[in-house]
UniProtKB/TrEMBL annotation:
A Pfam entry, by short name: DUF3298
PROSITE patterns: PROKAR_LIPOPROTEIN
Keywords, comma-separated and alphabetical: Hydrolase, Signal
Protein name, per record: DUF3298 domain-containing protein
DUF3298 domain span: 187-266
The organism of origin for this protein: Bacteroides stercoris
Enzyme kind, highest EC tier: hydrolase
Secretion signal, residue range per the UniProt entry: 1-21
Entry GO MF terms: hydrolase activity
EC number(s) on file: 3.5.1.-
Chain ranges passing through the membrane: none
Length: 285
């Protein structure tokens, strides 16, 4: 699970090289962007037989539908498609990408599972004995979490089941500076050698959130048993501070769910870069 999260973040950061640099506009919010969404709820049965297992795909893709800056709109949508579906969909329109992705998901499901299911049918006298794992589902749902000034925060919620004890799910956040259409990273927000001090702040806030006084107490509860607590690039900017989001298995077992740690800006003031412009809009709307 942790590897999947890291892989997605690497893809998103790499994709930034494809985008345009856009100038400021006179609008309060850069680009005067408007957003719409495309929804899909597709169920497809093996062999097209409703008596057999099926896959279910749910998509809710938020995309930029209008803008005073056409290049900004197109570039953002390219970014969103890459983040949600992968690089091969970057050159498509949102409608085309959703259609192609849906067709591929259903096609791959049938191609991969129909031969195995047919063999199971032949080997087992009772169809009820055939494993329930043949029923798959996948959800990719995104929305604009924050859009103010030159800052846009985009959230993607992903979940999937392909057999096993339980499905997997994760959330990924894109913090975009609309001046450059580049992702905002921790190094853009903090100055110098900040990571050790920021790690201490994360530990202290997690202790406060759980009303404990020591790191050992957190460990006894299950934290940092699956990974170290360090500043993650999977964060989002908000009016109250920066929230660091750890998906299941990043630092805690599946049963504990994702972990969110919000650090107020005042708490990090001594670490923030004086050259940071990305925070201006969210801190001084």
């Amino acid at each position: 699970m942790k590897k999947q999260t890291v892989s997605l973040l690497v893809l998103l950061l790499a994709a930034s090289g494809f985008f345009f640099s856009c100038g400021n506009t006179m609008n309060k919010n850069a680009g005067a962007l408007e957003f719409d969404s495309i929804q899909v709820n597709e169920t497809a049965h093996l062999f097209g037989d409703t008596a057999k297992p099926a896959c279910n795909l749910i998509i809710n893709l938020a995309y930029a539908s209008q803008s005073s800056d056409g290049k900004m709109k197109d570039s953002l949508n390219t970014y969103f498609l890459s983040a949600c579906f992968g690089e091969k969909y970057m050159g498509m329109t949102p409608e085309e990408a959703v259609k192609k992705y849906t067709e591929k998901y259903v096609g791959d499901y049938r191609k991969d599972l129909e031969p195995m299911y047919r063999k199971d049918e032949q080997d087992k006298e009772n169809a009820g004995e055939i494993g329930a794992w043949y029923s798959y589902y996948k959800g990719i749902e995104s929305h604009v979490q924050l859009y103010t000034g030159h800052l846009l925060v985009y959230r993607i919620d992903y979940n999937e089941y392909t057999g096993g004890a339980h499905g997997i799910y994760m959330s990924t956040f894109l913090n975009l500076d609309l001046r450059t259409l580049a992702p905002i990273r921790l190094d853009d927000l903090f100055a110098g050698d900040y990571k050790e001090q920021l790690t201490d702040l994360l530990w202290n806030q997690l202790m406060a959130d759980n009303k404990v006084a020591t790191r050992q107490e957190l460990e006894d509860m299950g934290y940092v048993t699956t990974g170290d607590l360090t500043p993650t690039e999977n964060f989002y900017l908000g009016k109250d501070g920066i929230t660091f989001y750890y998906n299941v298995y990043d630092i805690a077992p599946y049963v504990m769910g994702p972990v969110k740690i919000t650090l107020p800006y005042e708490m990090m003031q001594h670490l923030l870069s004086d050259e940071t412009m990305a925070l201006n809009d969210v801190r001084n709307p």
